Amino acid sequence: MRVSAVQIAVTVALVAWMITGFTRVPGRWLRWKMFCRATFTVISLTGTTKDGRTEPVNVYDHLSPGSFILGPPQLQAIIDRLTHSGQYDRIDGQGRVLSASGEQPVEVRGSRVVL
To answer: In three state form, how does the secondary structure of 68-98 look?
Structure first.
């Protein structure tokens, strides 16, 4: 079977188009629409219990199964639920928020999300 020049050109163009769809652009990461419209939070949290002990808090344990998109409002809702339930007296931490606007730092101070 012989491959024509047109088939090769179309294949190369398609591969190049797919590669550029996943490259960085200033202010954006992973230009694919699913990624550039979503907001992800990568954060390390520490919870303080009522007796003063500290332990790591994994917010992803509190998302729906299969969920991985976590923006600041969802993070605040999880922190509120964990502190109002009495599981933690306060939660603190720091990390990064990734969105269509780029990457920015995020902190949790005294159980409040601060951008």
So the answer is: CCCCHHHHHHHHHHHHHCCCCCEEEEEEEEE
